[in-house]
Amino acid sequence: MQLAPCALNLAVENSVLTAPTNYLGSDTGYPDWTTLRTRALLDPLYASVMCTIARDHGPQPKQDNFCPRRALKTVLSKASQRFQLEFMIGFEVEFEVWRRNEDDKLVLHSTGLGGAACSGLRHGCYEYVEETMMILLEAGVGLEAMHTEGQKGQYEFCLAPKRPMEAVDELVFVHDTLKRVFTRHGLIVTMFPRPAADRTQSIGQHVHISIGNRPELEVSFLAGILRHLPSLIALCLPYDMSYARLRPGQGGSHIVAWGTQDRRVPVRKVKSCHWELRCVDATANMCLVLAATLSAGLLGCMNREVLQFQDTSSLSEEEIIRSGDVYIPGTFEAALDQLERVYESEGQFKAIERSMESQVIRHYLEMKRFELSKLTQMGADEARSLLIELF
Length: 391
Known about the structure:
The protein is built from 10 helices and 12 strands. It is an alpha+beta fold.
């Protein structure tokens, strides 16, 4: 499948990082037909298939080392060959329902109580949530649970753990189906992390990672992730509005920390060899997030890293904050600076990139710097409106 020769260079508002001057060649999408999905209950003519992308620009040789999907496949292959590691990944999809008012402004539509309160299930839009669930279940999606979330107007789908590639593909399918169903009813469903500047409630997309078949690697794997977490954040939270969730005074969300069944910190240990990565939202490219995060864990295993951070589950919030001496960047620009600094000077992320056999991190830095400048030019309100509809 041929694409315009800028498929990997488009910013979120559709401007091009470096447009070819002559537009020779093309980008090529290579379908993985095992990912073919339909959703007969919603739109019988619909089908989706996931692709890897390679650059094929004129006389230059084909390049597929900018594709996040290929990078994740490479990491998974190496994990299996070198460590016999088989990962399982699960996602929690949080979302809210918005609409345009008579002034064409976006306002919250789903206003029922969250926090697992039943009143959220009595709101008028809940019938569309149920409609979405029926469509997903009929399409074979591993929808394990649904409940209200947050303080007000939020819902969450809990997806069953699956192999990483299958889990990411299913996540994309769930996002698209949610968008499609609510659009048909004149509403906007969003997974964007900060739909309203004046609300404290945010929307996350927590990621569950397990390595149950190699428990002896548990500590080193976690140590590798925590060591690189300040740099991974630029991939996990790729827009400035994502960082409102990482503020001092909100537990230990702004420091590198982990805790057994502790939801106050970025990494929650659910049980042995099973963690929840909480510093992620739905704007992230999950192929790239998983490729980098799993690579960081594998480097920890290769280097037999020692866990430097204590379990926070027995600490108060004040003690967690006092004990934190490694901080997560507080803005997207700071996160990009952190990632670039580590990438250029310390070479740590180059090791991660080498494990992917990819140049995707370098390309991501260039692409996101460009995109950040475009969103800044738009202004906060216009950018927020765009991102709510897209995500």
